[in-house]
Amino acid sequence: MMNLINNFRRDEDGAVTVDWVVLTAAIVGLGIAILTTVQTGTQTLADNISSELADITVSNGQ
């Protein structure tokens, strides 16, 4: 029984997979947080640019 417990304790199969899953989840979470933070400012800037472009009158040079 002790041999089984010691083998289980020393077995590292799957530990790297768990590390990668946690790391990937952290990166995805960080990306989502950055996206939501930047989204508001980007939308406001796009609206400002749109309104400025709509106010411009273009002459045909005559």
Topology (elements, then pairings):
Blueprint: H1 2-10, H2 15-55
Quick description:
The chain has 62 residues and is an all-alpha fold. The chain contains two helices and no strands. The chain has helices at residues 2-10, 15-55.
Description:
The protein has 62 residues and is an all-alpha fold. It has one domain. It is 81% helix and 0% strand. It has helices at residues 2-10, 15-55. The model has no long low-confidence stretch (mean pLDDT 87).
What tags apply to this protein structure?
62 residues; 0% strand
Q: Main β-sheet: number of strands, strand sense, barrel status?
A: none
Count of DSSP strands: 0
Helix content: over 70%
The gyration radius over C-alpha positions equals 28 Å
Structural class: mainly alpha
- Number of H/I helices: 2
Shape, per Cα inertia axes: rod-shaped
